[in-house]
Amino acid sequence: MFKYNYSIKKKRQSNKILLYLLLCLLAIVIGNRIFSVRTTGTTDNKTPPQKEPVPPPPNVYPVEPQRQQVPLRATLPLLPFLRKWGQWKRPQILISLLLCLLIVFSASAYTFQRLQAKNSLPDVELFNVGNVQPVTLSVGGGGIASPLQSINILYPLSERVVAVMVKAGDHVAANQPLIQLDSSLLNADLNQAANDMSAAQDYLNSVSITGNAVTIAQAQQAYDMAKNRYNALLTQSSSPLLHGDKLVSPINGVVTQVNINPGEMFQASNSLLTIIDASTVVVHAKLPLSYLNMVHIGQAVSVTPSALPNLHINGTISTIIPLADSQTDTFEVWVSIPNKNMPTSTALLPGMSAFIRIQSPATALVVPRLAVLNADGDATVYVVHNQVAHLQHVQVIGRSVENIFISGGLSPATQIVLVGLDKLQDNQKVRITRTE
To answer: Which one of 58, 319, 358, 382 is CB 3.0 to 4.6 Å from 389, fit for a cystine?
Structure first.
């Protein structure tokens, strides 16, 4: 191949030299004709008639006749021009010379432009696209680990704390006492609520006989409020979280935060402490929307904590949130990781960032990474047909270390540009140097 290209290139150089010589010869001939017309007034190059030789006088030894000489201007057409150079005017000389130079320059420029255009075709290497084949797609995304449950212990009424029986970091079991409340205040509130409800009932009964409609409506509203308060206190006293005068834990877990101290009063519905269920860690990860059809509930997932890049923990997709994030074009999946799958209890703590990786089988065309432009966005390739490169949009569904997986926009047995993409434009003719 190299010898063939070298011989072609050498032949082209020889042709160029011959062409330049012919152009120069043509310019000389044209200049000759112009100068002959200017000096002799005719374009006929025939020699003028010669006089007949005079015979020698008598009584003289015969002399060998001289050979007829050809006039010098017949052999050198430029000689008349050189002899009459002084008779020419300078503008006439300049015009003749400029005409010759213009002919030579125009021919040379045209030839150079043609040769340059022919030799300016970009060199490219092609890749033959194979058939559709099975591939393994790796779908990944980052997220934050969270506990399976996080419960805030609340109380709907203002009370005083007698004792706090746990501290942050303690493991607690279900129904284990956490906080002791002042039972005297709790019973006083119930008694006061019962008395308020009884008084409101008596007032409503009295105005129902003698009062007007407005008074009766106000009395009815006061009774309803007193009754609701009493029922609320009665419900709290029988709540699963309140055993006697103590608030207990609803789950097995770990105390992560305590917001109250013994002897303090707290406001209604304030968070007193927080318990998490760390038996299972859930990673809330974000995946690109293009992968929505590639994930499903129960699919196996490999989770890598950001703080431990060499650790891989097995998990399972437990929830898929079918809601797109318009700012990042992603959707959310929940990956559950039981503690039994972790090498240590501190391998993946709630609040840590992690990366999930999902292996999914698919079928696609496999092409080298170098052949695809903008693989992360509007991916394109250059398809070559009849030595012309055409820009083609393709759909990328995945990648490996060296290859790109394409599911649409490209056909098998197609030739695409592998090397030389940076020099190409759409519908540009190319010179193929190699094909893989």
So the answer is: 382
Query: With bands split at pLDDT 50, 70 and 90, how would you rate the model's confidence at 13?
Result: low
Bridge-based pairing state of the strands 246-248 and 159-164: unpaired
Cβ atoms 306, 356 nearer than 8 A? no
Backbone angles phi, psi at 60, to 5 degrees: -120, 140
**What is the Cα–Cα distance from 238 to 19, expressed in whole angstroms?**
111
Instruction: Locate the domains of the chain by residue range.
Output: 2-45+70-120, 125-135+363-435, 139-143+276-361, 155-177+251-271, 183-244
State the Cα–Cα distance between residues 241 and 180, nearest whole angstrom.
11
What DSSP element (H or E) covers 145? Answer: strand 133-153
Question: Which pairing describes strands 123-128 and 431-435: parallel, antiparallel, or unpaired?
Answer: parallel
Give Cα separations from 5 to 14, 118, 120, 183 (angstroms): 14, 14, 15, 102
Provide the 3-class DSSP secondary structure of residue 373. Answer: strand
- Find the mean pLDDT for residues 401-406: 90
pLDDT digits (tens, 9 = 90+) for 238-263: 667 888 888 999 999 999 999 999 99
Write down the CATH number for the domain with range 139-143+276-361: 2.40.30.170
Burial of 181 (0-12, 13-18, 19+ CB in 10 A): buried
Q: Is 18 helix (H, G, I), strand (E, B) or coil?
A: helix
3-state secondary structure of 292: helix
